Amino acid sequence: MRRTYKTPPPGGRHARGMSEAPIRFDTKIAVLLREDLETWQRLNVTAFLVSGLGTMVPEVVGEPYEDADGVPYLPMFRQPVLVFEGTKETLTAAHARALSRALPRAVFTSDLFTTGNDRDNRAAVRAVPTGGLDLVGLSVHGPKNAVDKILKGARMHP
Fold it and tell me: Which of 63, 74, 77, 106 has the greatest count of CB atoms below 10 A from its CB?
């Protein structure tokens, strides 16, 4: 499925002579969540997983926003974040494929639901060997084809 996005400039679609040319992306930002998570967990895990991407891959972040009154807002990703879900086995396989392709990635393990700060989060991940991580979420960024192969077996989040 190919998605096309048109980004209107401040002031509306036809302000300042906006071209109607679609914006296409060569890369994909994707989040894979374990299907048995509760709603609050899905939202929390997604937010955590994508939070570091802009610092490690700054080209995924667009320009700051500004409303018609000149109030500034923080920049956001310049492309969509696609959210998928799958079984624990799907997540484990996707993690292995992401590691083999050496793409930028983030993980969220079940242990992180019991910690309350960044230091303890990092310690919880560090305490478990790669193959033993109880993954509940994974995010990846990279070329579309590579990300699609990593997510094999996952389905779009409803």
Answer: 106
Q: What is the spatial distance between Cα 27 and Cα 56, in angstroms, rounded to a whole number?
A: 15
The length of the chain in residues reads 158
Q: Starting at the edge strand that comes first in sequence, how are the strands of the sheet with 105-109 ordered?
A: 105-109, 135-143, 27-34, 81-86, 155-156
Residue with tokens 């709603």: 39
Write out pLDDT tens, residues 57-115.
898 999 999 999 999 999 999 999 999 999 999 999 999 999 999 999 999 999 999 99
Three-state SS string across 4-67, please? CECCCCCCCCCHHHCCCCCECCCEEEEEEEECCCCHHHHHHHHHHHHHCHHHHCHHHECCCEEC
